[in-house]
Amino acid sequence: MEKENAIEVAHVQKRFGDRVVVHDVSFAVRQGEVFGLLGPNGAGKTTTLKMITTLLRQDGGHITVNGFDTLTQPQMVRRQFGLTGQTATIDQDLTATENLVIFARLNGLSRSAARARAAELLASFDLTNAANQRLSEFSGGMRRRLDLAVSLIGAPSILFLDEPTTGLDPRTRAQMWATIRDLVQQGSTVVLTTQYLEEADQLADRIALIDHGRMVAVGTPSQLKQQIGGSRLSLEVPAASWTTPAQAVVQKVLSGPVMVEKRTVTADLGPDGLPAVNTILQQLQAAGVPLSNFAMQEPSLDDVFLRMTVGKN
Ligand SMILES: Nc1ncnc2c1ncn2[C@@H]1O[C@H](COP(=O)(O)OP(=O)(O)OP(=O)(O)O)[C@@H](O)[C@H]1O
User: Fold this and answer.
1) Do β-strands 19-30 and 68-69 pair in parallel, antiparallel, or remain unpaired?
2) Are residues 192 and 268 in the same domain?
């Protein structure tokens, strides 16, 4: 059976004064997936997230979260999710346990249930040893993990992570990724915004690419990569004199442009893919063109990002 979408955003628009910062954006987030909102600075990611989480009202279009409308049922919508990126709401002078207990009590848990939930979350975020440490003594990575723990107190089915690993070192970032993957394994739906393409590539099942308030593309990381031309073929010949015959063979098989730089011939494979590579290799052999190196490279999300977005004016 087809699962209901966790979030539906339909033709949403947002203006600040006369300036339209989100134009007719539509997408759906499926239950249990990690959905990445990606785009350059000022693209409208945070504004979109704020509308979904009822912190801002859209000027046009509809948004539902687990079937509840953000404009007419905002309280029901708020019960569906946890939100991180709100470290400001955490008290620096209190310990990790005290902070978690306060949030758990605010979520309606009894004193003993709140303490139990705090201990459970500290354990799952590897913070048990820091349970009685004040947050002012926490490192950036520990704080980020506690922030995520706080957002999970109410066991939400949807989690919004606004740039969850900005400013973290590579090891701590990898730990956060593992934590997020665990949450998804347990059935959570995650929407994350990120500036890190690698993060989107690592975590997101699907990505919406936003630029200047418009949706530029939506799809799995590999669909987005294919949209900008599929894999790239790169052939290196042992001497510069071989580049012309090698280029001629590649040009005969592929329709797009073939580039030559020193002893290397490169071209986008386009939709022809592997069969074209086979033909090229056979024809090179038949023409007696030797190769010193051969590579096929998938475009990176960086390539997608750079080709599909313009960024700030
Ligand atoms: N309250 C506001 N009033 C006026 N303009 C705003 C307001 N909030 C955001 N904007 C503008 O809307 C545009 C989109 O901002 P938004 O914060 O959604 O972008 P973003 O994609 O999250 O960018 P970043 O990656 O830099 O966080 C920006 O040009 C921003 O200056």
Assistant:
1) unpaired
2) no
Q: pLDDT digits over 47-104, tens only? A: 999 999 999 999 999 999 999 999 999 999 988 887 775 455 677 889 999 999 998 8
| Co-location of 179 and 216 in the same domain | yes
Q: Is 21 in the pocket of ligand 1 (CB under 6 A)?
A: yes
Tell me the backbone φ, ψ of residue 130, rounded to 5 degrees: -100, 10
* Residue-number span of the structural domain to which 235 is assigned: 231-297
| Whether the predicted model's global pTM rises above the 0.80 cut | no
In a shared domain, residues 16 and 137: yes
Q: Are residues 121 and 242 in the same domain?
A: no
Q: Whose CA is nearest to atom 25 of ligand 1?
A: 41
Interface confidence, given as ipTM, is: 0.94
Q: Which atom of ligand 1 is nearest to the CA of 195?
A: 25
Which pLDDT score, from 0 to 100, does residue 2 have? 54
Residue at a domain's end among 179, 202, 226: 226
Is the beta carbon of 41 within 6 A of some atom in ligand 1? yes
3-state helix, strand, coil in the chain (%, to 5): 40, 25, 30
CA–CA gap between residue 185 and residue 68 (Å, rounded) = 24
